[in-house]
Amino acid sequence: MIEDGVLQYLPPEKCLSRHDEIQNQKTEQQVSFDSQGNLKVTKRAADLSCDTSGELKLRQALTRKALACDQAGLCSFNRLEEWHNQMMNATMRLPPSGHKYVTMQQVLNADRELWSLLWSLMSQDSRGNLKVAAGAEPPLDKLIGKLRESPQVLCFMTPLPGQAHAQPSKPQPAEPKQNTPGPKRPIADATGPKPFPKTKQRRTTEPGGKTVKDLLNSLPPNCVSKTEAGKFICLHFNNGTCRRQKSSSCNMGLHMCYYKGCNQKRPYIECSH
């Protein structure tokens, strides 16, 4: 940053320990230009990162960041550690009722926002030239002390509302059943046989008062009560007294002429055979 004169955000995972740098150090060298245009031979920079999963590892990475900035003269160690402590304390603060704890991602977003504001203010004050003078106060100390209390940064560390838990609804009382009059079923005698279900009962009489037995006894000559296939023929239909005279059948049998061998779809009294 000092060589280029430009302030940049340094994420915690890029703040490696010296041990990690030595373990992953490369011996390859490269030729590059410095800020004044002079050639210099440097070691090839490796794209290394450290593990910041968990609060302890993240806090150690932030401490190494404060030490590096202090050694470079950008800001003092104590001033940057005050900001880091404020970040970690925000995650342990008890949130209001109905809100969640501040997460690590929120405090990292606040840290990024602080460095973004630092870069913006430094660009306005120094026209983009980051200068560090020996014996002078670090250039970022006053700005960090001012911006860490700024609403633009603190809004990232505000507890967020939690999920609203829906209250279980009280069970409503069941509505009383209304007694509606319906058809009465026949009551069987305790000692007698049970009546057949309504759907299986066969009507044996039609208007006129004649029963099936009476009609069978008074069949005309050469007439039958069943077809050759053994199906019943409605006797009332042939006399013209069936309640469903216009249908093809009823519960008493098929609607067809019961003259033997005729099988016409008309009553016996109207059929010419």
Short description:
This protein is mainly alpha-helical. It is built from 8 helices and 4 strands, in the order αββαααααααββ. It starts with 17 loop residues before the first helix and ends in a 19-residue tail after the last strand.
Description of the structure:
This protein is mostly helical. The protein folds into two domains: 146 residues, no CATH class; 71 residues, no CATH class. 31% of the residues lie in helices and 5% in strands. It has a two-stranded antiparallel ribbon with strand order 1-2. A hairpin with a 2-residue loop joins strand 3 and strand 4.
The string of secondary-structure elements, in order, is HEEHHHHHHHEE
What is the mean predicted local confidence, pLDDT? Answer: 80
Total domains, how many? Answer: 2
- Shape type: rod-shaped
The share of residues in extended strands comes to 5-15%
Helix content: 25-40%
**Total strand count, please?**
4
Number of helices: 8
Q: Class by helix and strand content? A: mainly alpha
Largest sheet, in brief, is:
2 strands, antiparallel
Strand order of the largest sheet: 1-2
The low-pLDDT segments are none
Radius of gyration computed on alpha carbons:
51 Å
Distance between the termini: 118 Å
Question: What brief labels describe this structure?
Answer:
mainly alpha, about 270 residues, 4 strands, single chain
Secondary-structure map with pairings?
Layout: H1 18-23, E1 29-33, E2 39-43, H2 55-72, H3 77-92, H4 104-126, H5 141-147, H6 151-154, H7 212-217, H8 235-239, E3 249-250, E4 253-254
Helix pairs in contact: 2-3, 3-4
